[in-house]
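Input set for joint prediction.
Command: fold jointly, output tokens.
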Amino acid sequence: MKRPSAWHLVLAPLALLFALPLVWLLLSSVMSNAEINRFPPALIPSRIDLGGYRYVLGNALFPRWLVNSMIVSAVAVTANLVLGSLGGYAFARIRFAGSKVALGMMLATMVIPFQLTMIPTFLVMKQLGLIDTLGALIVPSLVTPLAVFLFRQFFVSLPRELEEAAVIDGCGRLRILVSIVLPLARPALSTVAVLTFLATWNDLTWPLIAINTDTNYTLQLGLTTFQGQHHTQWAAVMAGNVITVLPVLLGFLLAQKAFIRSLASTGIKG
Amino acid sequence: MASVVGTFTLDPRTKPKRRISSDSATGWAFVGPSVLLILGLSVVPVVWSLLLSFQVNDLVSPSEWVGLANYKALVQDPAFGAAVQHTLLYTVLYVPLSVVGGLAIAIALDRKIKFIGLYRTLVFVPFVVSAAAQGVLFSFVLDPEFGVANSLLHKLGLPAQGFFSDPGQALPLLVVISLWSGTGFCVIVYLAGLQGVSAELVEAARIDGAGRFAVLRHVVVPALSPVTVFLLLFQTINALQLFDLVFVTTKGGPLGSTTVIVYFIWEKAFKSFTAGYSAAAAYALAVALLVIGIALQISRRRAAR
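tokens >
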């Protein structure tokens, strides 16, 4: 029998160190307030108390924030897949006047930091009457240059032969994209979906600027204000925190390969 | 057969004129919405911001042109100076620690043993947790009265700490939290990079009598230098733009000890409604980011040669 590697002595405690805060998040979300408010506070709950979750889910706003976050993320992901693949395909395959300039300018915008655009974007959204609505969160995240760029890179790497037969048959570009190219583009589709979901679900800065009314908060903004108002009810705050983190955590655990490939690919090629 | 015919039809010389113009129409129909949205929501705001930075503007009433007054005031504003200092301190601590730590952990995780998948998952998972959730979690863990951190110190017989309420501890704590969530990204990128390090090169060095550490130092680390340069750039840009975590945990306090540049920019624009002044600060930051980006690109080109 092979002796277990000595590396476990290093790696197991290290992995535990990274996991511990999240374990503590879960544990404290099922503690009773009495146990949390004791000094020194309990480290492990003596029994599972769902009072925090009942409070948070009974609080009419938390479910609302969850729905708001889901709407914003779902629209952003769908729009990035549609607009990103359309744009990426045209930049990869169709020769048209001004394409190089348009692509170059779009990629150049990737270096613009958000702080530089946030005040004018706020003013634009105000002009459009979108401030304090979910529309203000959705419009700026409909398509990112990164989504267009990732699709373009993927389509450039596909062999042209597959499409050429369809071009001769007189198929339109849209038909070719939808029925021939996209079915092959699962890696690109999942990368763009993952990156867009992470960015929109986790965003706090822009919702903080664009939304005032609590019924229009996203989960991140709602959780932050909820903590400010209930800072002695830690069990409820942690239950709300679990609800905020869970969708991303579940998505990550279910599609770990896609997550890691997506994030690593932005690094290697960057 | 298909490819032969295909090559023929795609030859630009044989393309009739009408075909090209219809291609232009299709092309623009495909990219139009993206180009319009992306350029409209970046180029317009960038120019607008520049104009704003020469004005006094409260986001409501008509603005007044003041020339370079905002920039002059910025240079003399001790609050901005402090924000720059806090941001640099955070960056100087966070960036090297996350990159070097990421490399060390990636090397440790780059082996085929039992549970390695689990170890990698656990190291990386904090990265997908939002800054808001991290901030709320650690506000609780580090709560001086009810937090588990002081409870553990108490059990070990150590004195209780103020954590986020202590001006000397708040900024280093933000670094620690960022390391917890941000090192995993460096690990993932390095792990991907390690797969590209030539096994033959490592083998050759071994045969030449190089020890494990020598192989790391003279073969693996140099081979990873493009990855390292990318990570330094990426982490620095992120560190200089720190905001969410500060907003959730300390709101720039205590005693302004964690007011970083972006927090300063946000506060000036959306709390004290001095949007022109805020835009000037944002421009100062953007130029700094651009300079860092260009400098690293140049050093990357040199390294590649």
